[in-house]
Amino acid sequence: MTGWIKMRHEETYYYKPAKEEEEEWPPKFWKFILETAEEPKSEAAFVDSRRFARIRLLDCDADAIRQTTPLKENGPDPVIDRAIVTEEWLVKKMRSKKIPVKALLLDQANLSGIGNWVGDEIMYHARIHPEQYSNTLSDTQLKQLHTSLLHICSTAVDLLADSSKFPEEWLFKHRWGKGKKDQKKELPNGEKIVYITVGGRTSAVVPSVQKKTGPVAGDVKSEEIDSDVSPKEEEAEQTSNKKRTAGAKKEAPHIEAQIARGPTKKSRSGKDDKKPDLKDDLVKLPPKKRKASSAFEIKALVKDETAKKAKISTKSVNAEDKGTESGRRRSTRVRGRDI
Fold it and tell me: What pTM did the predictor assign?
């Protein structure tokens, strides 16, 4: 989430200054201001310090806004659409995909309105590790997940997102210690809070509560994370991985640590083919050029050095041939005069 609406002459909890001060209008980081035509006038400013938000003006009735693009592409809202977000619906959704459960919840195409801290709170109350694959959860876990989903979202909305009124046992009250030396990274009962990245977002996890009961994202190959990936997308991902690997090798400071002989493999003839040992090539290079950053560069440098030596050798042979030929001519001329 990024950005919010600030009403003039009205304090909102999420935009309330830490200290009492005279109201600044337009507020800091404002992007545009709305003003009503009737009297008394009302003013509202859209504020976005991170500049990630996008505003779209729609021409439709207010009752039909959720059936209009882009909102119609979103999934159901767990508060407004309780009749849709049933336990059966959630079970079907979770088992239709193979992605980390928290990443599925954060995807607005699946469910609307679940942000990062809400997702962590749901995971904590459901006692589910956020990295575990959605299609590996048991019936009991999915039932608890559905209960926690509705409870956390409904409570936050009923309290108008005023975190000072959130229950003390919520993870929200204790999850903000990352990167702060003077703040504890644990719950009041001593259980530690760790931070990992799930779905591209920093996630707060209590390992003693949220135990892994099935495969998680780090246990299998990256291309197997989402079963919805098409063959073309998978091929593109593999190509991208190869390019990243090649780039990483090129950025290595020295090749000496990477020149160990690799495993053998069978050739078409059935014999063992060994990978070339780069040590032999490095010996052929002058000392100043032995810190090449990749096998490709080593081969190129060896080729250049070989060509230079061959060129020098050719020049020497040519010089010798020329010397021999001129000597023969001088000898013939001398002998001719003698005759």
Answer: 0.59
